[in-house]
Amino acid sequence: MRILLAEENEELIVTLQRALQTEGYSVDPMYPSQALADRVASRLPDALVFGCPAPGSAAISLCRTLRTNPATARVPVVVLLDSSFEMDRLAVLSAGADDCLMKNVSPVELLIRLKNLLRRLNPALLDTTLKVGDIVLDKNARRVHRQKKEIKLGPTEFRLLEFLMKTPGRVYSRTELRTSLWGDDASVDERAVDVHIGRLRRGISLGKTDKVIRTVRGAGYALSDF
Asked: From the centroid of its chain, how far is CA 131?
């Protein structure tokens, strides 16, 4: 699972990033900025952990922006505040945050809260197996089966399929897919997405012509939701 971690304290970023990665999360750290909402929309992380100084006005504004955008309305948000005032915490929660903790929270408690939040909002994210139609992907074993036949995929195609299987039916632009695979590496051309989509199609087609992965003209690609 991909966690977007936005915090201005470098020491805290290192501490939380290490704790999250130890638990198997992929962490994208960044410094908080006005472009954070756009970053969330383009990256579509499985959760956002956002550190904000008191009184939390930036967190309130960010949460409202995320919740009014259909693309980010369901992204789980955990806010870390410097303030210990109950009113600040309630204001952030009222603006749309799913949880609000003090910045001095122990990494262990943050991990527990985050895991419980993800389990409650989207249980499929914590499953080790994804199933869409007749395609089964095992995250731990790094194996894919279709119609009970094992499919050999390269690491990039595996990650691409896993990303698409989390939200079958949703259309992703080339930019969104490139970001999901390579982050903000500007050296990767969007045409690389077409190459890997082609390889993925050939891999999961079992030698047949089907439309498991749809091309939506002018929009991008989507995994059929059967």
From this structure: 18
Cα(24)–Cα(18) distance, rounded to whole angstroms? 10
Length of the chain: 226
pTM, to two decimals: 0.60
d(CA 111, CA 197): 34
Could you read off the pLDDT of 122-154 as tens digits, one per residue? 666 556 788 888 899 988 788 999 988 899 999
> Which class would CATH give 127-223?
mainly alpha
DSSP character string of 93-149: HHTT-SEEEETT--HHHHHHHHHHHHHHH-GGGG-SEEEETTEEEETTTTEEEETTE
Architecture of domain 2-125: 3-Layer(aba) Sandwich (3.40)
Q: Is 48 within 8 Å of 118 (Cβ atoms)?
A: no
